[in-house]
């Protein structure tokens, strides 16, 4: 898939004081929504509780997957943890480096070969699995990157609520794919990115997938809006 890297362009604009507008996101089941660029540069106190908790639980050598502008990596580095940040967005990696992330690499998680004590996948970390049928493949690979006693900290949401009508009835098409598989659209400054597949995974489905590849799966905490943080080990 050839991405135009509009996400990276937006981050670079913000980093270079060229901030004039936000990213616009939408999915096949939701309308356009603004993703404010300053939020992607947030510091620890402005992060959701789930992210704060994940950073506090991080230990040893850490891999920050889908690091974006590097906010999580910077916090971990400042707290003395050996942290490597990876992203498939070229612009994001440039920005992370400019902001002081010492180890930032343009890389897909499936191409990673080093091993770690903590692997972080935050801001709907299951998104990169794309679809339910690929979850086990990704988990197997992530498991192979763990040192003994290592952990994967990942967050996601059960988006069943997005399919409820006013009476609380569900309109999920039972013949369709898993309801958490979405088409994700991004635009920036009147340019549209190639649509991406993006997966929201409910906890039970994550737990089931973990069992199939021999990982333990524990819920660490629930967030404020159908979201949760899980620890896999």
Task: Tell me about this structure.
- The protein is of the alpha/beta class and 233 residues long.
- The chain has six helices and twelve strands.
- The protein has helices at residues 6-15, 49-57, 71-78, 90-98, 135-144, 203-212; strands spanning 23-27, 30-35, 62-65, 83-87, 104-106, 116-121, 146-157, 181-188, 191-192, 196-199, 217-222, 227-232.
- Strands 5-4-3-6-7-12-11 form a seven-stranded mixed beta sheet, with helices on both faces.
- α1 (6-15) runs parallel beside α4 (90-98).
- The longest helix is centred in the first third of the chain and has 10 residues, at 6-15.
Report the total helices: 6
The backbone outline, from C-alpha atoms, is globular
Mean pLDDT: 96
Strand order of the largest sheet: 5-4-3-6-7-12-11
Fraction of helical residues: 10-25%
Number of strands: 12
The share of residues in extended strands comes to 25-35%
* H-E string: HEEHEHEHEEHEEEEHEE
* Alpha-beta content class: alpha/beta
Our measurement of the CA-to-CA distance between the termini, rounded to an integer number of angstroms, reads: 31 Å
| Unreliable spans | none
Radius of gyration from CA coordinates: 17 Å
**Largest sheet data:** 7 strands, mixed
């Amino acid at each position: 898939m050839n991405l135009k890297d509009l996400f990276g362009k937006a981050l670079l604009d913000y980093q270079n004081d060229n901030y004039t507008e936000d990213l616009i996101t939408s999915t096949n089941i939701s309308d356009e929504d603004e993703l404010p660029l300053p939020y992607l540069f947030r510091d620890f106190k402005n992060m959701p509780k789930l992210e704060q908790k994940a950073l506090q639980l991080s230990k040893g050598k850490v891999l920050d997957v889908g690091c974006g502008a590097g906010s999580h990596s910077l916090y971990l580095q400042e707290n003395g943890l050996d942290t490597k940040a990876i992203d498939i967005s070229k612009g994001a990696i440039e920005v992370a480096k400019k902001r002081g992330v010492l180890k930032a690499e343009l890389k897909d998680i499936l191409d990673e070969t080093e091993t770690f004590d903590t692997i972080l996948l935050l801001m709907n970390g299951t998104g990169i699995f794309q679809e339910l049928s690929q979850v086990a493949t990704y988990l197997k690979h992530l498991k192979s990157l763990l040192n003994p006693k290592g952990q994967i900290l990942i967050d996601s949401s059960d988006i069943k609520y997005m399919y409820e009508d006013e009476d609380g009835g569900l309109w999920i098409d039972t013949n369709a794919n898993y309801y958490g598989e979405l088409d994700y659209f991004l635009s920036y400054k009147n340019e549209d990115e190639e649509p991406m597949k993006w997966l929201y995974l409910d906890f039970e489905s994550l737990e089931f997938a973990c069992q199939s590849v021999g990982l333990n799966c524990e819920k660490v905490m629930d967030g404020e809006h159908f979201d949760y943080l899980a620890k896999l080990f």
